[in-house]
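Researcher: Structure for this, please.
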Amino acid sequence: AMKINQDTVLQGKKVALVPYTAAHVPRYHEWMQSEELQRLTASEPLSLEQEYEMQRSWRDNADKCTFIVLDAARWPGQVEESSMVGDVNLFLTNTEDPTVGEIEIMIAEPSYRGRGFGKEATLLMMGYGVRNLGITKFEAKIGQENKASICMFKKLHFKEVAVNSVFQEVTLRLNVSDQERGWLLEQTDHVEEKSYTELKQPAGVLDT
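Model: Predicted structure, token format:
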């Protein structure tokens, strides 16, 4: 199955979202060596080879929509790998209800945190989910210690609906009513959807 977003770029003000490709894996793998990120994302460190396999499985998985978050001030123009700041995912894992999307955001580069990059990337992904994937309910599961992320989702109108003390995780939810939909589309009306193939520069062209 062709992934719906495999040639999609969502260009915002601060961030550009691009499909997660093999070219992004080495940098992503480097990020995931960080114990702090492993803790925040509740993930185990993988070998580089496993990370490539993971990228392939994500690419082919129809239940998962993944974008790499790039700094829009640096890309297009600079090498993608050096413009990467994080990733954003939407999981469509509720087989009974395909209109539920679980959203995950990671701003991996510490210098980019607390500057609105995560917020814009999340809004872009939510707008994409509502416009292109028919999502009407968003969920986010966040570690209780990750106060900054919980706070950001609440600013995006999510409400806390559950706390799992075993996993030390908070679940937040947003039902996209007509009013919320209007707000979301307004928040993302600056976003341009472009073709990744067309924007991607051949390697070496910009290094001269």
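Researcher: Any notable elements?
Model: The chain has a mean pLDDT of 90. The chain has eight helices and nine strands.
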